[in-house]
Write a structure and sequence with these properties.
about 180 residues, 3-stranded mixed β-sheet, 8 strands
Length: about 180
């Protein structure tokens, strides 16, 4: 499990392509390198939980733990980007800087979709399109094109569709509160 997560962190996409800011939330290669070290040193635990929904992942900043509902990628197109989403939360926890949940989740979803885009860029360049079944995924995909250029800034106006989708989802309550990232 740990090796699977480290593989995502060591992916050239993670190391070179994901670098953007939204609101006060920045994410970039140096953040992921620190996360890689924390996982290598077992400062962040990677744990499997047997759940019906196998495509789940969750990072707990209070326990410094990433929980996955799967043990392998198995050719599933969503799992590596999903791992990166949660690693984005871990990267911010390591720095110990609280972020408003709305921006922290938006940053994680955008990073997830930027990873997905570069993972399959040749297919998209050849004209393939993608259709996400969930509203947040669709909104994040649309917003992610603003973050595909290294060092991009995603404005609130550009992120509005994603903010609206997050606010409408029952999973994301209290988006005005901070994630109290406390360091690892």
């Amino acid at each position: 499990m740990k090796d699977m997560v480290l593989k995502v962190l060591r992916n050239p996409i993670t190391r070179t392509k994901i670098s953007f800011k939204i609101g006060s939330v920045y994410i970039g290669p140096s953040y992921y390198r620190r996360t890689e070290s924390a996982i290598e040193n077992d400062d962040i635990e990677i744990k499997y939980v047997n759940k019906k929904n196998k495509n789940i992942a969750k990072y707990s900043h209070t326990h410094n733990r990433m929980v996955l509902g799967f043990k392998r990628i198995d050719g599933n197109l969503d799992r590596e980007p999903l791992i990166l989403h949660e690693l984005t939360h871990a990267a911010h926890d390591i720095r110990g800087i609280p972020h408003m949940r709305l921006y922290a989740e938006a940053a994680a979803y955008i990073a997830q979709q930027v990873f997905f885009y570069f993972q399959h860029q040749s297919r998209f360049d050849a004209g393939e399109t993608v259709h996400f079944s969930d509203k947040i995924g669709r909104a994040a995909w649309g917003v992610s094109h603003h973050a595909r250029k290294k060092g991009s800034f995603v404005s609130d106006a550009e992120a509005k569709p994603l903010f609206d989708a997050l606010r409408a989802d029952k999973l994301y309550k209290n988006l005005k509160k901070d994630y109290e990232y406390d360091g690892v």
